[in-house]
Design brief:
Blueprint lengths: L13 E7 L5 E12 L2 E5 L10 E6 L2 E6 L13
Antiparallel strand pairs: 1-2, 1-4, 2-3, 4-5
């Protein structure tokens, strides 16, 4: 198992995810966090077609931030999206 640079904490929070998908279309959807670290979060329920390197926005309450997509679950796998 790889050693992580920082700990992840399992925290399910409803957040809004938005940005441009693979086809250049604007999307906005409600998703949940699976776990959170100081540098980012792993999300569940993402249906937009995203790729590594895309910039997306997340909103939790009144707080907003932009993040770079670092990993996308392989299509057809149990971790799809």
């Amino acid at each position: 198992m790889p050693i992580r640079r920082e700990p992840r904490v399992a925290v399910p929070i409803s957040v809004r995810l938005w940005g441009l998908d693979r086809d250049g279309r604007v999307f906005s959807q409600n998703v949940k966090t699976l776990d959170i670290a100081t540098s980012g979060a792993r999300l569940f329920g993402v249906t937009a077609s995203l790729e590594r390197g895309f910039i997306v926005g997340l909103q939790c309450g009144n707080m907003r931030a932009r993040f770079m997509v670092m990993w996308v679950g392989e299509k057809g796998s149990s971790r799809e999206g």
